[in-house]
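Researcher: Batch entry, complex prediction.
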Amino acid sequence: MKLIFHGAAKEVGRSCIELQTQGDRYLLDAGIKFKEGGFAYPEKIINLPDIDGLLISHAHLDHTGALPLFEHYNIICPIYCTKLTYVLTKVLLKDSYKIARIKNLHPAYNKLDLEKLEKSVRFVKYDRDYKHRKINFSFLNAGHVPGSSMILIEAEGKKILYTGDFKLRTSELMKGASPSLHEIDIMIMESTYGARELPERDAVKKQFLDKIEEVIARGGSALIPVFSLGRSQDVLIMLSERKFNVPIYIDGMCKKVASRILSVNDPYINNANVLDEMFNHRVIHIGSDRHRQRVMGSQGIFVTSSGMLQGGPVLSYLAEMWHDPRNAVLLTGYQCKRTNGQTLIEEGYVYLDGWRTYVKGEVVKYDFSGHAGQSELRELIRKIHPKKLIVQHGDEEAVAELAKWAGMNTHSKVYVPSVGDEIEI
Ligand SMILES: [Zn+2]
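Model: Structure tokens for the complex:
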């Protein structure tokens, strides 16, 4: 039995791990990585005509973006995932295809491939045992985003746990992961925050809500850029905790994502009723350009995608709001290098219609995350205590620090693969 790392090894992006067992080949995730001018696909992925099955941890494109390639190259095999993962993957893939076409990024598949995906998908329920050819598997809540799963596989008498992206602490939208597993032989784990601790979430939430009140009190508006999947719903649930005397607006793809989340009855969604009340009754949905033009000069709280200000309606709002010092832009998560979000928080400017624009209002970043912080990563390793630990899905520093800690504090044999590496089990 062996594992081959086609991506997400000493990097974040294009998660894709191959498991070979008794002549069968399975893939855990099939993601893409965003890079300047396009996408990076998993290494050697088109040389995989005899894949026997795909198991998908969650809907983010760095775990699913390469799925249409399988249809494109006519690789017919079942794709196992939760219902919410599939429903949300479809929304994200369609949107990324649309954006890729607009930006001339030439995705390696066509629109038809997206439609064809449907026939290969097999829904799995959480916490049930499934069998496919030579493996047994089950999906466990990962606490990361709606539908997200850790995947437990049994093959050749060995137990392999793939964590996908996970969070142990319960957040506004997600119940935290609590895998109670014993005698795991191999754990393949994410390490996004392997080198950094996250601040205590309730304290960050209080600062965030206090800041919105302060901005409103001084006569300004709050612009809240959000990631469509997860963070936008977290923010709506947080906003439900206070009474604001200005309207709350929601705009962009996060609307579609919220309605999809509410359409599936998923056991690990937290506060579904609060989200439903906020989304369907308390916030105002922006439905058209005209509607947006009408409201954006007035005072309000504007929750809109995209979270790193790289596209979406948030840029239209900013074009209207940047010059008023009473306004504030409240970033709600990690900002990648070379994004508008990063230049805004570090240097005070964004590009609006190609013009470098210095924003006069206040800019604050709040460290909300759907990932495990450093202490949670360590907690999971201690709890599962696998015989072999494979650290991946983190940049070089994060991977190295978590691996070093595990080497010093546990009896697990620790591996840190690079892209292309094979690990014999
Ligand atoms: Zn993710």
